[in-house]
Specification:
Order of helices and strands: EHEEHEHEEH
Bound molecules: flavin mononucleotide
Structural class: alpha/beta
Helix content: 25-40%
Shape: globular
Distance between the termini: 14 Å
CATH architecture: 3-Layer(aba) Sandwich
Number of domains: 1
Number of strands: 6
Oligomer: single chain
Length: 149
Amino acid sequence: MAEITLISGSTLGGAEYVAEHLAEKLEEAGYTTETLHGPLLEDLPQEGIWLVISSTHGAGDLPDNIQPLYDQLQEQNPDLSGVRFGAVGIGSREYDTFCGAIEKLEAVLTANGAKEIGEMARINILEHDIPEDPAEIWLGSWINLLKNA
Ligand SMILES: Cc1cc2nc3c(=O)[nH]c(=O)nc-3n(C[C@H](O)[C@H](O)[C@H](O)COP(=O)(O)O)c2cc1C
């Protein structure tokens, strides 16, 4: 089955663990995966399926390790019309800018022609001590959409 590239943006490691967990679940479902923590544009296949997982820091800011990719997407405007993607945000509702980073990533991917599959997940760590659990539930419906897309 298709290869899925998982891309994580994380400051403290939580989003990385979620990415690795989802990669494991995708492999169990028969997909092959590659997981990249804070990749640059040149590390990514510019077609196929991406799953982007990012927490938010500062006030709605991107984690430092994914900021360079975001800047490249904004400055270089690569043609991503061959990319379909899913988006998982991890954040805390105590901030007005809840899940701001994944919203920025979604916007720049869409602006460059990538097509989003399904609706992004916004995981509130105040409600979920273990963000892998709601992420896994979201992944189940995302896989169904992938099969039918
Ligand atoms: C200094 C700081 C600022 C944060 N700012 C936001 C924010 O603006 N929006 C949000 O949704 N979550 C915010 N968070 C919550 C983090 O996204 C959350 O703790 C997340 O689990 C961290 O994931 P990570 O381990 O991948 O870095 C902030 C956390 C810290 C410590």
